[in-house]
Design brief:
Elements lengths: L11 E5 L5 E4 L13 E3 L6
Antiparallel strand pairs: 1-2, 1-3
Amino acid sequence: MRDVDPKSDEETPYECFDCGNIIIAETSPGQCPDCGGPMRNRRIPLE
């Protein structure tokens, strides 16, 4: 597994924990624009 810099300026996919919406952004959106749920960086594995 490779290390991922969560502060990177490159475009990264983010997924909403609640509704599953996926957006591509350069910075973390914080909350889902559709439902307001928490977003996660899909390049960082869940453990």
